[in-house]
Predict the structure.
Amino acid sequence: MFDNLSDKLQRVFKNLRGEGKLSAENMEAALREISVALLEADVHFRVAKQFIEAVREKAMGSEVLTALSPTQQVVKIVRDEMVKMLGQHQAKLRTANEPPSVMMIVGLQGSGKTTSTAKLARWLSKNGHSPEMVSVDVYRPAARKQLSVLAKDLKLSIYEGAPEETKPVDLARSARKDAVQSGRDVLLVDTAGRLHIDEELMTELTELKELLNPTEILFVADAMTGQDAVKSADEFNKRLGITGTILTKMDGDARGGAALSIRAVTGQPLKFVGVGEKPDALEPFHPDRVAQRILGMGDVLSLIEKVEESIDQKSAEEMQRKLLDDDFTLADFRDQMKQIRKLGPLESLLGMMPQIGPIKDLKNMKVDEGEITRLVAIIDSMTARERANHMIINGARHRRIAKGSGTSVQDVNNLLKQYAQARKMMKSFTGGGGFLGKRLGKLKLPMGFGPQ
Ligand SMILES: Nc1nc2c(ncn2[C@@H]2O[C@H](COP(=O)(O)OP(=O)(O)O)[C@@H](O)[C@H]2O)c(=O)[nH]1
Ligand SMILES: [Mg+2]
């Protein structure tokens, strides 16, 4: 989601590295390039300016670590400032002393309020809460229906309202009563939106706020709208006082700058990001992880969590042992491909990894689901002996395997190349001296990722 910005910043760092010594001149040149990269990524100009000033001050000042090389220092300073800009710590949802905690979901039409309400309810119920939802978008019957349908699909609780409840405040009041009676601890209120901010909408939202005394007023911002999202966040905040932002559509080709500016402009944290249309496509926002991702250090922690969620620990340990003993066979490679398929889209996974060394090659391979299926089919067409020892696969065997799996000799060759590459990549991880090995210390990772 930050590919362009990420590429540009990494180029700046690479150039600096080439310079060897850090001087006032090359530092200024680097700062100029960073500034351009931020603006091109749609970062608000004021935020970009502050950012550059902070980096300059630190880089020229005394806050430099002697243990790091000059470029590393700059990377570290940029990273720290970026984390600061994004909000330093992960911002948790605020809850009330007396349940239910009421959370209003506000924003412009089409920004993703209804979708995010359902996603958030799902996320809350997976994280120990018992949420109830209500839609107070009385202007568009289809909008309320949309939330009902989502609630039914996800088996989540929703207050549907009585026919005489035609005003947002009436619906909200009854919904809260219903939530209290059924012992729900969170009430999510999906509000109406407009194409533009207008008085009527603001009055309605202010009335709801006074009635409900919400613990959260979450502004839903569409990342695709770039600076407009920042502007309306600012406006909603001034008029209503928001407590946080949910940034949606970060899966699209948004330049991501909104993410980097909203928190700075409103002073309120980004709490979640929407990364797809599906109900599970919502992630808590981690400033440090996102900064690492932008700077190409890879969102290793998110990756680990994702991998841990879907990989069976025992088979992962077995895989790790095999790698160390150097008997990671094609059969294991096939098992691993199958596990990877369970993780979801590969691109999103690779995007979380540090873009260095063998991973960079992997990314270029652009493995997709269809390709995994083909790879698995090729390995399926091998004999057990071939799977155990790829060295015996000669020309004749190549042809037989290609025929058996409905692929070409070229495909079989590619598979063997990828297998070799995977072995190499995993070796560099398990060796303890690689990028992850140095950084992750004693963390034990599944799938052969990680030091011993
Ligand atoms: N790709 C993508 N689409 C989203 C995301 N969030 C919402 N949408 C889509 O945006 C459109 C508008 O969403 P909706 O929740 O109805 O917006 P509302 O008018 O603010 O309630 C729908 O088509 C959603 O599927 C997201 O994170 N990623
Ligand atoms: Mg809606």
In short: The beta strands are 101-106, 131-135, 157-159, 186-190, 216-222, 244-248, 270-274, 282-284.
